[in-house]
Amino acid sequence: MLFSMFSQSLTLCFIALVFSSPVLGDANKFNALCSKTTDLRARIDDARTAIDGFDGGMTQVIPIARSLYGLEVARRAMMDHANQFDTLEEDEASQFMEHGQGLHDSAHKALESASSKAEIVKSLGFHPLVGGMVHGFASYVGDFQQLAKNKFPKDNNTMFDSMLERVSTQFSRTKAAFQ
Prior knowledge:
By secondary structure, the protein is mainly alpha-helical. The chain contains 7 helices and no strands.
């Protein structure tokens, strides 16, 4: 009986040590970063869907505002989590770039959607609202530029920068459409 209790205690201690080890802790931290990135992509897609559905109706403004708020919360959560890393390892950077490619594609499409609605939005006088969303993407672009500069091994920066350049170019086009 006593041996059984000792054995169970020892097993629990071993499990606790394994899960608190720095290697596993870093893996869990990186997996959480990838999860936050996936969530951000979903919020960007939600915003794009809300914008695509906008045809000038007042009832469609609230879903857009909600989706933009969700996008901002997800962006901040992802960046807060990314800031917990000193520098990503080579394999982590490659994995994160795969997530980043999908994220940048979603951001590019959302900006295209916003740009396509510019005339409707301006005719209704909502351009300050959507213009604010477009400026919110400036934070997105800036965040990812900082992430690439500070967290990635130097040889990965050029690939990441080229993906981000597409988003940045579409951001400029969309911003111009609302002016």
